[in-house]
Amino acid sequence: MTSEDLLMFLSVATSGNFSRAAIEVGLSQSALSRKISTLEAELNIRLFYRSGRGVVLTEPGHRLVKYATEVKELLEHATADLSSPEHQGPSSIVLAAQPTIAKILFGSIGKALKQEYPGIKMRFKEGLGGYIREWIANGEIDAAIVYLPENHASLGADVILREQLYFVAPPEFGPIGKGFPVERLASVPLVLPAHPHGLRVLAESLTARFSRSINLSMECDASVYITKQLVAENCGCTILPLVSVQEEMRKGTLQAVPLINPEIIRDVAIISARNRPPIPSQRQVLETVRQQIVHLVNSGAWAGATLV
Questions:
Q1: What is the average pLDDT across 80-95?
Q2: What is the mean pLDDT of residues 169-173?
């Protein structure tokens, strides 16, 4: 006996004849009659008294109506519950990003996902690129928005935008023109994070192109905000994307120009976990994330970025 059997039985019981019930369940009258006969044979009881005017429930039939009604109500409740907006899409998601990206994105992504999937439970993680790649490899997160390292072929990345890096200096540094040559980086004191932060690795690789080493004034593993404070206090210079310093540039507490000869560009991409079962509607969820990034770039909120 299945739920389908019970629903067909209930349709016959409530309509009082096979012809109306057959129309309701979408079967021929003879097919429905055979199914009810099969159910009666399986239960070894008679469910209906049959006559030319229709059918009447037997005493066991009345008892089965109670159970069939409960099954029907349960199925209707489950359908309504699971098809409601708060249960469409994933029940939870874990997203990660590097600090600079997290500051720009997490607020708008959280709002957009909550609007589209009201019942979703979100967890945001912030970490350096090396840690995020470990989380991806270990299946600790569903997806991440990251600055891509030079060797990223194995990450399966969906590149969304490119962002130019800027040389950032205090006002006391003096005029810096319209661009700062990469070759000059080794000649200025720099405030940079320690290894394995991507900016530290990048700065060292840039100066190594000219057979030189960085002139490290201070290591700062705190937030970008603290790095900017140290630079504003004339403790050294640094390299950051434009979006990280545009407010300080407006206030005049920092100055920044693009790194040039060559221009230094970083790709920002969404990467998904490969050792973690995909969440329901993962493609649609990540498309929502992508659209939020596109909106921020198009609106000018992500200064210095261009869409790929």
A1: 68
A2: 96
The pTM score is 0.67
Q: What percent of the chain has pLDDT over 90?
A: 54
CATH of residue 261: 3.40.190.10
What CA–CA distance (Å, rounded) separates 268 from 84? 35
Banded pLDDT at 28 (limits 50, 70, 90):
confident
| Domain contains 152 | no
E strand segments, 9-107:
48-51, 54-57, 92-97
Is the residue at 151 inside a domain?
no
Instruction: Kindly report the CATH number assigned to the domain that includes residue 74.
Output: 1.10.10.10
What is the domain range of residue 79? Answer: 3-83
Residue 27's contacts (CB-CB under 8 Å, 6 or more residues apart) are: 8, 35
Q: List the structure tokens of 307.
A: 């869409």
Q: What are the Cα distances from residue 240, in Å, to 34, 83, 289, 290, 302?
A: 76, 46, 23, 23, 13
Q: What local confidence, expressed as pLDDT, does residue 82 receive?
A: 65
Whether residue 156 is contained in a domain is answered as no
Q: How many Å apart are CA 15 and CA 287, to the nearest integer?
A: 48
Whether 185 contacts 167, CB under 8 Å: yes
